[in-house]
Amino acid sequence: MVTCQWTIHHGWAAPKLQPFGPLSIMPSASCLHYATQCFEGLKLYRGYDGKLRLFRPELNATRLLMSATRVALPAFDPKELLSLMAALCAVDGRKWLPDPGTFLYMRPLVIANDPALGVKRPHEALICIMLSCYLTMDHGLFTDGLRIQASKDNMVRAWPGGYGFAKVGANYGTMLAAQAEALDRRYDQILWLFGPEREITEAGAANIFFVWRNLETDRLELVTPSLSQLILDGITRKSVIELAKDRLTDIDVVERRVTISEVFVAAEEGRLLEVFVTGTAYFVVGVQEISWTSTISLPIGERSCGKYALIFKNWMEDIMYGKMEHSWGYVVKEQPA
Ligand code: PLP
Q1: 3-class secondary structure for 298-310?
Q2: Among candidates 50, 116, 52, 42, which has minimal Cα distance to 81?
Q3: How far apart are the C-alpha atoms of 211 and 332, rounded to whole Å?
Q4: Which residues pair with 130 in a beta bridge?
Q5: What's the gap in Å between 121 CA and the centre of ligand 1?
Q6: 236 in contact with ligand 1, CB cutoff 6 A
Q7: H or E element in which residue 132 lies
Q8: Structure confidence by residue, pLDDT tens digits, 37-62
Q9: Cα separation of 105 and 135, whole Å?
């Protein structure tokens, strides 16, 4: 793992590359009490051309900076963070990722490790970057697509003025109880709604897309909730939107407020063709069922996807695994063996 310590008096120290192992922090450390922490998640891919790649990692680096700022953690240069991520990938990729078509998960983390208790802006912080193995969604998980359940009225994931747009741990721990209950009822994720209109925000730790036919224009639309303080600016979401605008002419891309009743009306009218979620962990997975006041069922095809989800999945995989040279594929320079 890579670690780098910051103090308010000396700034960032020289980073260290060291074996993965326990961190030493005081029980009084700020992050353990006041949720002064944030993180990122991305994948390291071994391409079919033998090269190691990250997918748009500069966006993860700038998003980590944005999240850090939200919880009063110190600023850093995102370019420097990216070079630390790449340095770790260069060392671990050779050892742990020899086979083309495979990936590892990378987790950059920032915590405030001030030793003294006190509700105040942290004076000490640590960046830690680690790599880990991760189950692929194509190996038996969600092969028939996801079953998602709309959140109940007594719980929201995020709210205006809050921190739903930042990747801070406080967004995740607080949804685990609801998620565990959903799992007990054999749902894979919660579809988080917000406000009296039951606006759709996100599905678990993923962004959501709908493919439907617009009643007025009779055109196909790829619709996703527009970014707000309630939604994480997902890199997979952004990539799907950009690819659709760039390469597809048969479907209009629409970012706007979406309510759950609209989705159910479109389904009743036979206009809802496909629903899918996007995110680094799930990547692109079709939704086979949405449960709210009643239940919508949707067909799922090849590789747990509908028609459009599969197109985006294939296009992005081509970039991730180097089947297509693209500026989104960041090649990690490896040291010679
Ligand atoms: N929404 C939340 C809450 C997430 O945790 C994630 C996962 O990182 C996403 C959306 C998807 O973001 P990305 O595509 O950058 O992984």
Answers
A1: CCCCHHHCCHHHH
A2: 42
A3: 35
A4: 107
A5: 26
A6: yes
A7: strand 124-132
A8: 999 999 999 999 999 999 999 999 99
A9: 10
- Please say if the pLDDT value at position 138 is more than 70: no
Nearest alpha-carbon partner for 47 in 281, 332, 285, 335: 332
Tell me, using a 6 A CB cutoff, whether residue 232 lines ligand 1: yes
How far is ligand 1, taken at its centre, from the CA of residue 193, in Å?
16
Which residue from 232, 239, 277, 282 has its CB within 8 A of the most atoms of ligand 1, so it is best to mutate? 232
**Tokens encoding 51:** 């090269």
207-223 average pLDDT score: 97
Structure tokens, 259: 């309510």
Going by their DSSP bridges, the two strands 146-150 and 283-291 should be labelled as parallel
Among residues 187, 189, 192, the alpha carbon closest in space to that of 155 is found at 192
Indicate if the pLDDT at residue 137 is higher than 60: no
In sequence order, the 6+-apart residues with CB closer than 8 A to the CB of 293 are: 264
Q: Is the per-residue pLDDT at 136 higher than 70? A: no
- Dihedrals phi, psi of 131, to nearest 5 degrees: -115, 150
Token pair in block for residue 228: 């707000």
Phi/psi-derived region of residue 140, left when phi > 0, alpha when psi is between -120 and 50, beta in every other case? left
Q: Provide the 10 A C-beta neighbour count for residue 301.
A: 13
Q: Which amino acid, residue 335?
A: Q
Instruction: Say how far apart CA 1 and CA 203 lie, in whole Å.
Output: 31
Q: Could you give the C-alpha distances from 61 to 8, 108, 243, 302, in angstroms and in order?
A: 21, 9, 21, 33
Distance CA 116, CA 291 (A): 47
Distance 269 CA to ligand 1 centre (A): 31
Q: What is the DSSP string of 249-283?
A: SSEEEEEE--BHHHHHHHHHTT-EEEEEEEETTTE
| Residue that the structure tokens 């700022």 belong to | 69
> How much distance in Å is there from the Cα of 115 to the middle of ligand 1?
31
- Best residue for ligand 1 mutational test, from 70, 207, 284, 316 (most atoms within 8 Å of Cβ): 207
